[in-house]
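Hey all, quick one. A colleague (J.T.) asked me to put the fe (ii) ion job into the tracker so the inputs and the structure tokens live in one place instead of scattered across chat threads. No bug as far as I know, just bookkeeping. Sequence used:
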Amino acid sequence: MSESFSNDYLLYAPFPTASTLAQWLQESNGITRQILSNLAAEEQLVPQLDILNPPLWELGHLTWFHEFWVHRDGQESRPSFMKNADYLFNSSEMAHQDRWSTSMPSLDSLLEYNHSVIGSTQALLSTPIDNKAAYFIQLAILHQDMHNEAFAYMWQTMGRSRPFAPFTNTNKFEAKVQTWVHFPKSTIQAGSEQGSGFIFDNEKWAHPIDLPAFDIASAPITNGNYLEFLESPENRAQSTPVTPPLHWKKEGGDWLERIFNEWLPLNLAAAVRHISYFDAQRFCEHSQVRLPSEHELSLLMSQKQGAWQSSNLWEWTCSTFAPFPGFSADPYVEYSKPWFDGSYQVLKGGSSFTPDRLKRVAFRNFYQGQRSDHFCGFRTCLL
Ligand SMILES: [Fe+2]
């Protein structure tokens, strides 16, 4: 962690109160422990794929991350509760493929490590804390929230039962008529301002963007829309037609979709999910529409509820993940900076497994365009 970083994070006030942080931590860590404590021995093993992580490694990693930033000041020279923690659980040092071949501490000892680290933070939160402590505790909680969501989409990938209850009930998804929401030419503010509360470094800093007029769909693309595209003569005539998402199958003429371990009739009115950025682009070409930019989608998502319909998914944008003017890396340098290589696309919104504290409009999620395993969907704009 010798790479230089700025101290801008001290400008990310106001921070939540210690009691709010304590409550968030209890909730987030409670979810992690519930997932891991219910893990059968055979479920500790997962196939070695780029899109998966061994669950025990993930538990060790998120606990190590918390301990490293909250209790060790980001320095390996400070002792850890867990022997070899830096070697085993620093995601920048332990190569992805080595997470399968390196022997890991037992589930019990990792749960004990987690208990010690989180217990120390809960003790810290019963006393007054300064902005620096609040920043790193919030960072560790949000990092854990992201890993909890990753458990959910890994379980979806593997067809395991739902690992924890979603934060939003997607059964309530009612298809409303899709309309085009018109936005006249305007200048908007992208990014986040100092003093607007906790942000990630890739939101630095607020800056004006001139947006030409555009029309964006009030609702996401549905399973029905996507099926129609897949089955269209134009798609079928392609040399490499777009194929159905991996969690769909056709049985006796009926389409089914797998939600975790359950095969259900495909709900044509629900937002289509697990579509890669590249396949979303193919849909757009076929339908003569386009994906919104991150700024266009942010503007829609900052409108009052009722003006647009949430998909409860991360929605792809045509914006390649890149630094804003004024970017400088925060202490966790590996959060954004290594991923500005042009192969990541920005997604906005949040899934039903994303807690509200991560669903700020300014939050920029990012994944490589071929990924479809996370909870992602899309909506479109008129050309
Ligand atoms: Fe991580």
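Adding what we noticed when we looked at it: Residues 135 and 278 are 36 Å apart (CA to CA). Residues 170-382 form a domain with the paralog of FGE (formylglycine-generating enzyme) fold (CATH 3.90.1580.10).
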